[in-house]
Amino acid sequence: MSSRARAGLQVMGIVTADIAITLDGFGAASDQSREHPFGSLDASRLHAWMFEHADDNAAEVAAIVDAGAFVMGRNMFTPGRGEWDPAWRGWWGEDPPYHAPVFVLTHHERDPLPMAGGTTFHFVTDGLASALAQARAAAGERDVAIAGGASTINAYLAAGAIDELRLHVVPYVAGLASGSRMFDGVGPLDLEPVATRPTPYVTHLTYRR
Amino acid sequence: MSSRARAGLQVMGIVTADIAITLDGFGAASDQSREHPFGSLDASRLHAWMFEHADDNAAEVAAIVDAGAFVMGRNMFTPGRGEWDPAWRGWWGEDPPYHAPVFVLTHHERDPLPMAGGTTFHFVTDGLASALAQARAAAGERDVAIAGGASTINAYLAAGAIDELRLHVVPYVAGLASGSRMFDGVGPLDLEPVATRPTPYVTHLTYRR
């Protein structure tokens, strides 16, 4: 039991968001496909710090999935648009790394999709606030994580709903003509820088609202 | 005499660039005027770390003007476009903080403008490479600084001419529809992160090519 719980205070996690972005703020290119979830933005470059240099970034990688529930945009779950293809079960295989309920924002209804390891994808058609409320209820005392992509994080930032934003800035300028880009449509907005950790392959920047 | 000079090696400074930007990468808005050098982007917010919190950022502030010569874009020197108004002598008063030659990129000829304290503005009409070559020659053993704005730094980055890029990221999302924005038109480009220093009002990020 946490000290807050022992003190009888209300115990509730915060809302976090993690995203790996290029120096020019891109989280993905717009030409997404089943083979290329990040489109023409080189995913290996964007995520080398998580996979090739996992030991150097163990704390940050663990924090990304340390939540009691997740919210993600539809484009993070699938390259498809319009009605669902029921055969599509996400990019993560049968045991996704979330191990918790994941609320997927969509305009198209779909039954919940239970996976191995405790992950269940729930498809939410009634908007950002509803998805966050459902995630909060599911998370209990734990944090809720906005899992991405950039446009979903931007929407929650603009709504003032994110307590802690964790940017993982890869030292690469993508130079895309279009794509999913952090902070598009968000400002003006003040944040508070609370932590910075540089590594040779990524710079971790943590902000609070 | 430096150890390099004592060893008989060629002694030449590097090319640096400093710029204060918002979280979404803006160095200035596009509606620049004599009264508002950064247009509708709030300059006090962009530069509070330099003025209101100068003690916390003394090393970074000093480094900005620690060069033997400077290059700047025309828009950093004046809000004017087209032919010169000879009465305009920059935004810095009669004793600008550069104390060295400053090469201003322009399409319109103008005689050199000597100021107090060792600053002379030279107006260069034959392009980026010429301005940089003139600055290198003037700087001697010292560094050449690309003083800004973002579009001038972007042009030199794209040309591979900047050795050390020092971003001073203010924790504020500007949300501008247009403006002078870091990395526009630069990528794809890899950089090497070499230093990071967080403060409550700005995050200093240093990259090398």
Helix content of chain A: 10-25%
Task: Give the distance, in angstroms, between the N- and C-terminal Cα atoms of chain A.
Answer: 27 Å
The fold-level CATH name of chain A is: Dihydrofolate Reductase, subunit A
The radius of gyration over CA of chain A amounts to 17 Å
Shape of chain A: globular
CATH architecture of chain A: 3-Layer(aba) Sandwich
**Strand numbers in spatial order across the main sheet of chain A:** 5-6-4-3-7-1-8-13-12
Structural class of chain A: alpha/beta
The total domain count of chain A is 1
Structure description:
Chains A, B: Residues 15-194 form the Bacterial bifunctional deaminase-reductase C-terminal domain. With 209 residues, chain A is of the alpha/beta class. Chain A has one domain (3-82, 95-208): Dihydrofolate Reductase, subunit A (3-Layer(aba) Sandwich), CATH 3.40.430.10. Chain A contains 6 helices and 13 strands. Chain A has a 9-stranded mixed sheet with strand order 5-6-4-3-7-1-8-13-12. Chain A has a two-stranded antiparallel ribbon with strand order 2-10. In chain A, helix 4 (74-77) links the parallel strand 3 and strand 4 (101-105). The longest helix of chain A is centred in the middle third of the chain and has 12 residues, at 128-139. The two termini of chain A are 27 Å apart. The mean pLDDT of chain A is 94. At the A-B interface, strand 9, strand 11, strand 12 and strand 13 of A face strand 9, strand 11, strand 12 and strand 13 of B.
